[in-house]
């Protein structure tokens, strides 16, 4: 497990944050608690209220749980949680190199469990992507009192 708080100097690209916190975690259930605590700390740093802290915790827990449960169905693997603060908003990205986002056939909601709808309801902006190198990213942007809070 690795944790960094890394200021990003002049080398950052146009879409890169000025500073970020990053955790690389084993894809197991216990690691989700660490990711949630990291993000709660940033929400507290921002001075946002309890409702925002609770809502953001739920959304981040769901994003991390998806990586743990679905990215590596045969076990093993890691996922990374990156979070950064921009003016008046918090952005959290959960990335893994697992099998990507696929619908669950057994789910009654057309392939969606509760996690994705919760993230969509709570986050102000939510995106899902996979790149050519097999990295899947769930990115959620929050503002205080935005989305579901």
Give the biggest beta sheet: 6 strands, antiparallel
Helix content: 25-40%
Helices and strands, in N-to-C order?
EEHHEEHEE
Q: What distance lies between the first and last C-alpha atoms, to the nearest angstrom?
A: 31 Å
- Poorly predicted runs are 3-14, 107-111
Tell me the CATH architecture. Answer: 2-Layer Sandwich
β content, as a range? 25-35%
Number of E-type strands: 6
C-alpha-based Rg, rounded: 15 Å
Tell me the name of the CATH class: Alpha Beta
| CATH-defined topology | Heat Shock Protein 90
CATH superfamily: Histidine kinase-like ATPase, C-terminal domain
Helical element count?
3
Structural summary, described in words:
- With 149 residues, the protein is α+β, with helices and mostly antiparallel strands.
- The protein has one domain: Histidine kinase-like ATPase, C-terminal domain (Heat Shock Protein 90), CATH 3.30.565.
- 31% of the residues lie in helices and 30% in strands.
- It has a six-stranded antiparallel β-sheet with strand order 1-2-3-4-6-5, covered by helices on one side.
- β3 (78-86) and β4 (89-96) form a beta hairpin.
- The chain is globular and about 40 Å long.
- Mean pLDDT is 81; it is low at 3-14 and 107-111.
Secondary structure blueprint with pairings:
Layout: E1 2-7, E2 19-26, H1 31-46, H2 50-71, E3 78-86, E4 89-96, H3 115-122, E5 125-130, E6 136-142
Antiparallel strand pairs: 1-2, 2-3, 3-4, 4-6, 5-6
Helix pairs in contact: 1-2, 2-3
């Amino acid at each position: 497990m690795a944790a960094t708080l890394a200021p990003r100097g002049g080398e950052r690209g146009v879409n890169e944050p000025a500073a970020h916190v990053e955790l690389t975690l084993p894809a197991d259930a216990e690691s989700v608690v660490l990711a949630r605590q990291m993000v709660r700390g940033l929400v507290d740093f921002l001075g946002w209220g309890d409702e925002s802290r609770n809502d953001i915790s739920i959304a981040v827990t769901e994003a991390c749980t998806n990586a743990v449960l679905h990215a590596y169905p045969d076990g093993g693997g890691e996922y990374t949680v990156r979070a950064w603060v921009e003016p008046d908003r918090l952005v959290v990205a959960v990335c893994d190199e697992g099998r990507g986002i696929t619908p669950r056939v057994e789910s009654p909601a057309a392939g969606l469990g509760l996690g994705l709808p919760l993230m969509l309801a709570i986050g102000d902006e939510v995106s899902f992507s996979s790149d050519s190198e097999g990295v899947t990213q769930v990115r959620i942007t929050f503002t205080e009192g935005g989305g579901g809070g």
